[in-house]
Amino acid sequence: MAETFGFLRAWLKNPLRIAAVAPSGRALANLITCEISRDTGPVIELGPGTGAFTRALIARGVREEDLTLIEFGSQFAAALHCHYPRARTLWMDAARLRTIDLSDGTLAGAVVSGLPVLSMPPRKVIAILTGAFRKMRPDGAFYQFTYGPRCPVPPRLMDHLGLQAERIGGTLVNLPPAAVYRIRRTHPNHFHLDRVSLRQREPVG
């Protein structure tokens, strides 16, 4: 209950950034992590919030020390650091992901996103995806949930970045109901993403 109230307070302060009035439920957490295991290797989580997806990742065997948690909310970041001390928690905007060096340079096997990309401007979505895929292995996957009827990343942006999306499932018991998409490179190389990132030199707000 305290977690829900804390989430609600954060939503009231910035509803566009939080984009939901309650933390993600267990069904959604299980769905968005269903293809991830200990064998996936390092995992980056964007916008963990209260840690619903983090708990599901650990339950699936992902080692806490293999988790990098990127959280913009200072209270959420502090709580995540306290609850998962062996994970790497970074208090920062996920759009800056491409500018930082993660640990020993080992590439992640997956990125799990709890970010409200539907409410973000295209330039910021491009920065987030570019940064995420530059930190992942060529066969890595980006998992994004949405409350909408289709992938929250528009097809023109997907084509621009050389990415493709596939719906892996939905859950009606989440509040509100949600679906999860797996986003991957159309070809296992960095060409499109590197080309876009070179044009993204200005700061992302």
List the topology elements.
Elements: H1 2-13, H2 15-18, H3 26-32, E1 43-46, H4 52-59, E2 67-71, H5 74-83, E3 88-91, E4 108-113, H6 122-134, E5 136-146, H7 155-161, E6 163-171, E7 178-185, H8 191-198
GO biological process, one term: methylation
Keywords: Methyltransferase, Transferase
GO molecular function: methyltransferase activity
How do you describe this structure in short?
The chain is an alpha/beta fold. The protein is built from eight helices and seven strands; from the N terminus they run H-H-H-E-H-E-H-E-E-H-E-H-E-E-H. Strand 2, helix 5 and strand 3 form a beta-alpha-beta unit.
Structural class: alpha/beta
Ranges where pLDDT stays below 50 over 5 or more residues in a row are 1-8, 16-22, 197-205
Shape: globular
C-alpha Rg, in Å? 16 Å
Please indicate the percent range of residues in DSSP E strands (runs of 2 or more): 15-25%
The total of helices stands at 8
Overall strand count: 7
Oligomer: single chain
Q: How helix-rich are the residues, as a percent range?
A: 25-40%
The profile of the biggest β sheet is:
7 strands, mixed
Strand order of the largest sheet: 3-2-1-4-5-7-6
Instruction: Write down the overall mean pLDDT.
Output: 85
Report the end-to-end length measured between terminal Cα atoms. 33 Å
Q: Secondary-structure element order, as H and E? A: HHHEHEHEEHEHEEH
Structural write-up:
This protein has helices at about 1-15, 15-20, 25-30, 50-60, 75-85, 120-135, 155-160, 190-200, and strands spanning about 45, 65-70, 90, 110-115, 135-145, 165-170, 180-185. By secondary structure, the protein is of the alpha/beta class. A seven-stranded mixed β-sheet has the order 3-2-1-4-5-7-6.
